[in-house]
Amino acid sequence: MKVNKLINSFNYAFQGIIYTLRTQRNMRIHVVVSAVVLLMSLFFRLNRWEMMVLFVTITMVIAAEMVNTAIEATIDLMTDQYNIFAKIAKNVAAGAVLITSLNAVIIGYLLFASHLTPASQQVLLVVRGSDVHITFIVLIIMMTATLGIKVYLGKGTPLSGGMPSGHATLAFSAATAISLITVNILVSGLSMFLALLVSQSRIEAKIHTFLEVLVGALLGIILTTFLFQLLLS
Q: 0.85 exceeded by the pTM?
């Protein structure tokens, strides 16, 4: 029971993210811009601390937008009449999003500006030497793509059901990334075997159909391979 409650709590959290993505245009803009910035970060010599600052900044903007949406929904639930205090609350929440967005722009400029000139000459070398970053960013992109497809189709929850299987997508994405990084056939084989076990468990539990798992697996393999070829070419 405790495990089910924990899983449900994650599902509720993801449902909140999906609701915000479906209903808030600004949230969709934030996510797209964040994905582009994370991709750009692969082509610059950002150190660990700079990457941490980048992720914290992105998280702050997205979290602020979600809090703003929650405040708006709560106020709309309490009253459908014009109220000066309701207007103030909404304006203050929107102002918080604006401040975090401006902060993100400033931080982005400070992080990337000093790397623009050398990056134009050393892009390939930087990317080839950033296997860990590439793998991490690819997995984030894969997760975003999976959630985007589920949002578009409107079926299932982020962690249960729907097309495609998110577990299969991420499992095969990770297995493909491992296979592309390592030269050890045994490691590659074991990672693919674990991905198959994850996929099989989703079918066995009747959470996903075979087609949903198959599409998720193919999406994970093909998209991850494409991203690695794009970033390492």
A: no
**Packing angle, helices 2-23 and 25-41, rounded to 10:** 100
Cβ-contact 163, 156 below 8 angstroms: yes
**Cross-strand partners of 157:** 160
Highest mean pLDDT among 79-88, 98-107, 162-171, 210-219: 98-107
Residue 6 pLDDT class (50, 70, 90 cuts): confident
List pLDDT tens digits, range 152-170: 776 666 566 677 787 888 8
**Residue 48: exposure state from Cβ atoms within 10 A (0-12, 13-18, ≥19):** exposed
Task: Kindly give, in sequence order, each residue whose CB lies less than 8 Å from that of residue 133, ignoring residues fewer than 6 positions away.
Answer: 41, 42, 51
CB 223 within 8 A of CB 139: no
Which residues belong to the active site? Answer: 65
